[in-house]
Design goal:
Chains A, B: It holds the Pfam family Usp. Two copies of one chain form a homodimer. Chain A is α/β, with parallel strands linked by helices. In chain A, about 45% of the residues lie in helices and about 15% in strands.
């Protein structure tokens, strides 16, 4: 809001805050590509916010297929793996942002990129973050966050289209 | 495609073709506003295509509440009314485009606006037109095309998010 007020005072339009939900899938990479090539403009002062939502670590006892309780070591390993995936996804997304900035030859107007990694249910977290971060647009792929979960809960993108406080752009591969 | 090839030959990026589905609702006006203020840029050579889909006229016998068949005069009157609504919606949308062009002070770069009025089921027609018109983006409100139809068939925007060949942007009021 501070930046927006300053830009308004200077008679400029404030840059737009574009929230891109990234995950492991190709569609989210395409969504980010679309955003960088077609929408976000560093010269306009836009900010691209990369958001990755990783699932909450299991805090209660979980039975594996053979009926044994997961040990603490196993849940810790799952959590560690999830953090590593988050790091890899975010790193790839950041590289893409840098690549597009260079391609655009906008070195004097480098794209502002913010990274957020949140934990929880992707559907609700993405919508909450869209509001909290003052996003002007939410960009995402249509099929993110896993087949089985989608079959059970409906797609994350459907939920966000209905519940996010800003316009939502869905990119399909 | 011809314009695109020419632009590519001249070393310019071709303007984007932005299909905006308009209807009687406020959300579609908001979607168009969003498109004009945030996305479409006359100076980039973008084209805004306004698409209104009106329902097919009843071609078979329809019973009214009292059990009488609709006469030909009645179906003709319904069809005439539907055309008038189409004209009114499209006119309002065109005025909004002109207004934004003037506000932007882009009189030397006036926004290219095309108008299409199609007849049929909005869901399928919008998706077909997105492909046929080579749209780079489809913009629409989330609640268009009537409450009862939506309750029966699901929302038009849900269908388009899943079936359109290009990225889809949904704007809510």
């Amino acid at each position: 809001m501070g930046g927006e007020a300053a830009a308004a005072a200077a008679g400029q339009e404030p840059g737009r805050r574009i929230l891109v939900a990234v995950d492991e899938g190709d569609e989210s990479v395409q969504a980010l590509r679309w955003c960088l090539s077609t929408f976000a403009a560093a010269a306009r002062g836009d900010t691209v916010i990369l958001l990755y939502v990783r699932p909450a670590p299991p805090t209660y006892s979980v039975l594996d297929a053979s009926g044994y309780l997961f040990s603490e070591e196993v849940t810790a390993a799952i959590d560690r793996y999830s953090r590593e995936v988050a790091d890899a996804v975010v790193e790839k997304a950041q590289k893409l942002c840098t690549l597009y900035s260079k391609e655009e030859g906008e070195s004097h107007h480098e794209m502002k990129v913010e990274v957020k990694v949140a934990v929880g249910d992707a559907r609700t977290v993405i919508c909450q973050m869209a509001g909290k971060l003052g996003a002007d647009l939410l960009v995402m792929g249509s099929h993110g966050y896993g087949f089985f979960k989608r079959a059970l809960l409906g797609s994350v993108s459907d939920y966000c289209v209905k519940n996010a406080s800003c316009p939502v752009l869905i990119v399909k591969s």
